[in-house]
Prior knowledge:
This protein is mostly helical. It is 78% helix and 4% strand.
Amino acid sequence: MRHLIITALTVALAGGVTGALAQHADHAHHAAGLAQAADARMLVKFPEPLVEHTLTNMRDHLLALQEIQEHLGMGHADVAAQIAENRLGMSSLQLHGAHDVAQHMPAGMQEAGEAMHRAASQFAITAANAGVTNDMKPVFSALAKVTSACVACHAAYRIR
């Protein structure tokens, strides 16, 4: 009986591992196909010093989003609000040298960037309000608008 249980568990585990490996292979194949597809995003050429500057700013935006999510998870909506406004919101434009970069962007890219910065400032207000209301649903909806603006821009444009 014990041998039968061990055999059944082994078969079940092997099936689960095989299924997980197959699923991983499907995802890897899909990702490889996407990588091989032509990049249809509009190429925006920046002066060389601004390329690295802009990419550094975008990496900081991702880090800020990660920190915001971490603080929301800990129940620190007020800290998340401060990070959003200072690093992503309208208050951050001078810090990132937005004026220098924006003049090299097509209008749609400028609009997407402005939408992200405005959404981040709105998120900051919504998150600060959650400290009083304890209602987190609007906070997550507002955060989704920030990341939606990021996704829209990255889906439409690439820089070099």
